[in-house]
Design a protein that fits this description.
The complex is a heterotrimer of chains A (190), B (373) and C (157). By secondary structure, chain B is mainly α. Chain B folds into 2 domains: 57 residues, no CATH class; 282 residues, no CATH class. In chain C, the strands form 2 sheets. A 3-stranded antiparallel β-sheet of chain C has the order 2-3-5, with no helix packed on it. Chain C has 3 helices and 5 strands; from the N terminus they run H-E-H-E-E-H-E-E. Chain C folds into 2 domains: 35 residues; 86 residues, 2-Layer Sandwich (Alpha-Beta Plaits). Chains in contact: A-B, B-C.
Amino acid sequence: MFPNLTIPDFPLSFPLGGMDIAFYAVALVILVTAVMTVAVKNILQSAVFLIFSFVTTAILYLLLHAEFIALAQVMVYVGGVVIFVVFTILLTSHLGEDAFTTKVPRIFTAFVISIAFVFVMIKCILPLPELSSGTVAAPDNYASLEQFALRLLGYGADGFVIPFEIVSILLLMTLICAITVARRSKEEKE
Amino acid sequence: MYVPSVTHPIGDFVREWVPKLSAYLPEQLQSQTLDTIVAFLVNAVICIVAVCAVNIGSAPILIYMERKVCAHVQCRLGPMRLGWHGTIQTIADVIKMLFKEVYAPSGADKLMFYLAPLIVLIAPFMVAALIPFDKNLVVSDVSMGIPLIIAVNGFGVLGILLGGWSSNNKYSLLGALRSGAQMISYEISFAMILLFVVMISGSTNLMSITQSQAGTIADWFIFKIPVLGFIGFILFFISSTAEMNRAPFDIAEAEQELTGGYHTEYNGTPFAMFYLAEYIALVTNSALATTCFLGGFHAPCIGVAFVDNYLTMVPGVVWFFAKVFFMIWCYMMVRWTFVRPRVDQLMDFEWKFLLPVNLLLLGAGAAYIVISG
Amino acid sequence: MQENITLVQYFKRYLKRCITGPWSLICGLSVSLKYFLSPWKIVTEQYPENKKTLKMHERYRGRLEMVEDEQGNNRCTACGMCERACPNASINVLSTKNIAGKKVLGRYVYHFASCTQCGLCVEACPFGAIVMSPAFEVATTDPSSLEMILNKKEGQG
C-alpha cells in the first residue's frame, strides 16, 4: 500500500505492538456491537449496531492486509444486505414496537447452541498450525486486487472461473425470479 | 508490516524535523520509537485538518455560488446586501444555523435521530481523502481507491433511511424510502461507470488513473476513446446527479410533494450537517469526474509546445480546482434548468435505459481495448 | 390501455425518443445558458439604492388617482359607476348639485386601506377620469391618511 517505506524500530512484537493494540481495540468494539445487536429492544437500532459490527469486522480484515475482502465486506453487507434489512423494517409497520418477553427455556436453548458453536469453531480452527503459532504470514500482494482477480478468473489449476460463472448464473436466476414474482399477472390486470 | 504513513513531502518534512526537535528533550525521554509515533500523529492531524478544510471550507463557497448561478439563470441578482455582492451572506446563514436550538420531535428515536447526519457525512469525507489534488498532494494514496469509493457510498443511503425513519413523520419516511430506492438503483450505474474507467486505465488507484491521462487534452479519458469516453462521461454525470440527490433527481427532498423529505424534522446543526454532506458530495463527485474523465491535475495541453510551456507553469492544484468548479457549474446549470421526473419515470430511466447502456458501454470498451491493443 | 404495436414500431419509437429527448434537454440548457451569460437582462431592482433612478413599469397599479388638468379640473360626472364596480366598497362618490341644479361631484372619497388595486373602477369609468398611479411607496404610519379625497375641486359636469 505504501511503497518505499522504512520505519526501523517500531515495536511490532506481541505485548506492546501497535498492531496488537489495534486488534484488541477493534475486537472489543466488535464484541460490544455484536452484543448490542442482540440486546437492544428496538429492531432498527439493532440493525444499526449490526452495521457497526460489520464495519469493524472490515477494519479487522484491513489489519490482516486483506483489503479487497474488507471493501467487499463493506460493499456487500453495509451497502447491500443491511440496507435491505432496514428497508424491510421501514416497510413493515409496527415491527418490534411491542416488547416481547422471553422465557427461560429459550435463553437456555440459545446458550446451548452458542456454546456448541464456539466449541465447533475452536475444534476446527485451533488444529491449524499457522493460527496457533501465529508466525506464518501471507506473501506480499497475496490478497491484492490484481492477484485476486487473476486467481478468480484464471482457468488454470488454481483458478476459480467455473465457480465464478456458476455464481453469476445464480445471480441471473435470482434477478429473473424477482422480476417474475414482482410482475403483475394477466388475470390480475383484467 | 502495515504501518500507516503519509508519503507527501510534508510528511517527509515532519519526519525530518520531529527528531531534530526531540533532541531538546531530556535524555531519558528520547527514543526513535517516540519520534516515529509523534511524527505519524502530527502527519495524521495535518491530513485530517486538510480534508476538513477542503470540505467544510468549500461548502459556504458552493452555497454562495449556487445562489448566484440560480439567480442569474432566473434573471435575478441573488444575494447582494451582505458584503460585496453578498459574499458573507452564506457565512451569516451558517452562523445562524449553528446557534439555533437543537431539538428532536416527540416520539423520535433520539439515538438514530442524531446518528443519521453523522452517517451521511462519512462517505463524502472518505472520498475526499482519496482524491489526488496534485502530483504529491493526496491524503491517502490507496491502491483500492475506486472499490473504496463504491463501498462507502452505501453509507449515504443508510443515513438518509435512518434520518427519515427516526423523525417519526410520514413525509420523512416516504422521502427516505423513495430516495433509498433511488440511490440503491443509481449506485449500480455509478459503480459501472467507475468500472469502465478502471478498465481503460488498468488501475483502481486514483493517482495512477490520473497519471495515465498525462499528455495533451486528447489523452483525457473523455476524448481518449473516440465516442465511448464522452458517453461514459454523460452517464457518469447523470448517475452521480442521482447519487447526490440533486435536482432534477431530488426525489428525496421534493419540497412540493414531501415538504422537504427526510430532513423535514431536522433543524439547527443536524440540518446543517445534512446540507453540508450534500455540498461536500457535490465537490467530491465533481473531483471524481475530474479525476476519471477530465485528466485530474494535468494542464489542458493542446500539443503546441509554445502554449503548453505556459500552461504547465500553472500548478496542478489550480487546474484541478478550475476543472472541479467547471463541473460544479455544470451540475448547477442542470439543476436549475431541468424538471424533476416522477418516481416511476426515474426508476424506469435507471433500469430500462441507463443500466443496459452501461452494460453495452462496458462491452464496447472491452472491445476497444482488445482491438487497439 | 396498452396499444398493440409491432416490435419494429416499438424500436422506431424508442430510437426517436433517444434523439428527441436529449435534443429537448439541450434546448432547455441553451436557454438557461443564454440567460446566465447575459447579465443585462436581469430584472431585479436594487430598490433603496437606486431610489432616484428607479422608474416604475407603466402597467403597475398603485394608488387610485384622478386625472386633472392644469387648473385642477377633473372629468368626473359623479355617475357612480366606479363605486358600483368596486368589489370591496373602497370608493364613495358623494355628489352634490351645482348652481344650475345639475348633479356634480362633491367629494370623491377613497378608502386606500381596503383597496386591493384590482383596477375594476378604472375599467368601469366611462370618462377616463381615474387612473391607477405608479406610486408604490405607499406605506404610512398614520392610518387616518389612508382615507383620502381625490378631487381638489368640485366637478364641473
